[in-house]
Amino acid sequence: MALEFLGKDPNSPNGDSATVWWDTEAREYVLQGYIETNPATLTELGPLPVGEVRIRFPQRMMQFFPEVNGGRADA
């Protein structure tokens, strides 16, 4: 796996989340965010498939996706 770092949330309280990477081999995004724990939200979302997790990912992080920023990893 070859991961390309795309960006980290500059507004994160601890500077360690959320983060987005691009897997150049699988051609998929890898996201790090806060695990969704709000019971009402989890109920509204419904069942979760085995092996998956739901995370919160700030809208301001969209700037790091090449589809949004014109292909730049350093936006």
UniProtKB/TrEMBL annotation:
<protein>
    <submittedName>
        <fullName>Uncharacterized protein</fullName>
    </submittedName>
</protein>
